[in-house]
Design goal:
about 300 residues, mainly alpha, Serine Threonine Protein Phosphatase 5, Tetratricopeptide repeat
């Protein structure tokens, strides 16, 4: 049990991760106490060992009150983030009931992330439900443009994605690099997450970073089920990215021989040249991707050369 000073009183809340702590500072287990001693108000945060505020009551009581309130808010918000990331919905519920705002933003590292993002990144569905019930914004973006559903998609947390979709999460929001949740799921080879997002209405034509399509990104992951899911959407096999590469060029460059085979079987042309004037075979050869070279060399020739 750890104590928090909330609404002018010390209260108790059970927190995870308290046993076997090797470092109180690293564990970030905060306890706030207000000590009145010799006309001084001292706010200390145990777990960091750093006193945050001290001021003379007699000389500046109002400033002391403001600083106490500010430090109290910051410390309880940090605890909300910590408990959300741990998936301790009971502690999260307690902190929210005590007045910590569900929309609080992480400030210490400047990420601007919310507790809902942190819970979504770990797939803690029960904790997410508590936060959403307290008004957490399902589409809140951090400083890098990341949303809760993007965090869940990039890690393949299907149940978290499903909950966020039901809660109204937008599927077309892009991060600072230009990637959507579908792009993230495809890049990381999370086939189940890709399927849920497609069923929810995510667009396979929406491009991401460097003008890559979700198929480009699925090919980069090398995950066969994810690639086949994309191909089943009748995507453009010959869409080009910023460098004029088709998905087949990308597969060749990455040495994804199985992906090369899947794309050729689906009808991808091997003669298309990228912006550098190279075919997929020439790209594979230049990168020393021998397995991809063998697949491309064995590909049936198609009449007519298609350049860019």
């Amino acid at each position: 049990m750890r104590s928090f000073l909330l609404a002018g009183r010390l209260s108790e809340v059970p927190l995870q991760g308290e046993s076997g702590m090797s470092s109180r500072g690293n564990q970030m287990a905060w306890r706030i106490a207000r000590l009145l001693c010799g006309g001084m108000v001292i706010l200390s945060v145990w777990g960091s060992g750093v006193p945050v505020f001290a001021a003379s009551v007699s000389r500046d009581a109002e400033a002391a009150r403001r600083e106490l309130a500010k430090a109290h808010l910051q410390a309880t918000e940090r605890e909300l983030f910590r408990q959300a990331a741990l998936g301790n919905e009971q502690a999260v519920q307690w902190l929210l009931d005590a007045g910590v705002h569900a929309q609080a933003r992480e400030r210490a590292l400047g990420s601007g992330a919310t507790a809902l993002q942190m819970a979504a990144a770990k797939g803690h569905v029960s904790t997410m439900q508590v936060l959403l019930a307290h008004g957490a914004d399902v589409n809140a973006r951090d400083e890098r443009g990341n949303t809760p559903i993007k965090e869940a998609a990039s890690r393949g947390h299907v149940a978290a994605i499903t909950l966020l979709v039901k809660g109204g999460a937008r599927l077309d929001v892009k991060d600072e690099l230009g990637d959507t949740p579908l792009c993230e799921a495809a890049l990381n080879g999370h086939g189940d997450a890709v399927q849920i997002l497609l069923q929810a209405g995510a667009q396979v034509t929406e491009r991401g970073n460097a003008d890559r399509t979700p198929l480009h990104l699925a090919v980069m992951s090398g995950n066969g089920s994810t690639i086949r899911l994309m191909l089943a959407q009748h995507v453009d096999l010959h869409a080009v990215d910023h460098w004029g590469n088709t998905p087949l060029h990308t597969a060749a460059e990455m040495g994804q021989a199985a992906a090369v085979r899947e794309l050729i079987h689906a009808g991808a042309r091997t003669e298309i040249k990228n912006a550098a004037g190279l075919t997929p075979l020439e790209v594979a050869e230049s990168r020393g991707q021998d397995a991809a070279v063998r697949v491309l060399q064995g590909a049936p020739a198609k009449p007519g050369s298609v350049g860019r």
